[in-house]
Amino acid sequence: MPPHCPNRHCPHYLDPRDFAWQPYGSFRRRSDDRHFQCFRCRKCRRRFSIRTFQGDYWLRRRDAYPHVLAWACEGPGLRQAGRVLQLHHSTLMRHLARGGRQALLYHYSRLRDRNVVEPVAIDGFESFEFSQYFPFHLNLAAGLRSWFIYGFTESPLRRKGRMTAKQKLRRAELERTLGCPDPKAIQRGMTELLDLVFRGLKQECTSPRGLEVHSDEHPAYPPALRLFTRTSGHRLDHYVTPGSAPRTLDNPLFPVNLADLLLRHGQANHRRETIAFSKRRQGAIERAALFLVWRNFVKSRQENRPGPTAAMLAGLAAIPLRWGEFVQRRLFPRAENLPGPTWEFYWARIKTAIYGTKQRTHELRHAF
Questions:
Q1: Range of the structural domain that residue 20 is part of
Q2: Does some domain include residue 364?
Q3: Structure pTM?
Q4: Are the C-beta atoms of residues 252 and 144 closer than 8 Å to each other?
Q5: pLDDT tens-digit profile of 196-222?
């Protein structure tokens, strides 16, 4: 049965109460000769089918969709995965973009109305887009007890480190043409991340000592925590662990350090000295959203001792998720009410400066 009207302008799109529909024939899919029931909303008269509510809606290679999402988290680059799956790399890119949007909706729908009360570790994962002149941070937050990754934000950076005289001239030329990234981008991104993690948290849900946040010695983190405390009214207890400390289970930053390690190991676009680097930051964000679902809901928390997933230990899932189940039910953006900057991620509004204005954004099509 259709759960709601897929027309975003219909009052029954967000409110399925009193949603009335009528059967409106059927259609036959030529590829496998299957018949699908069609409906019509009695309120807005919009016609749709039961296929409208499936995750592989409007895809021609529906059989490949879950396999593409699985391969995206197992290490190969796009062209390598395309050769295995016998798909063109541009087809993989479209599948990954759709999967990334679905992953954002899936992840944050599970966190809706949930209070994060376990200690949280935060850190920045550094990568780059287009070339090493355009680095950026993925700011991550992971639970200390469950190892659940609660979310991420992005922060564009200025290239730093050792450079030759020619490279310094090239950086100055690019900054003169495209502008210089915000020097407080990490502070802003970390404040947005804390907003994502602790959004909607009621004061009575916090412990008397306050919310416990662990980080390394990065200078941008204390101002971000102070800004979040001032704007949210929540008390934060900030604990700093030196970055030189051994990265063992005894290290409070182990969950987020492990997330960094798995992200670099499982996605070819973040490896050192690779030709599979991200050409656009938006593409890296969509793959990071898939990594979020894979790490939290699909993969066992520990590799050598398979058992519950991080989402199961956080009380957000009962059993591990399979990619086939992930693509079964289509999620709608306005119904899921994405928080903060993730709305910009969903609509593909994160731009790569070197490409200028010739960059696509995701637009609502086919009742999406």
A1: 1-53
A2: no
A3: 0.91
A4: yes
A5: 898 766 544 445 456 899 999 999 999
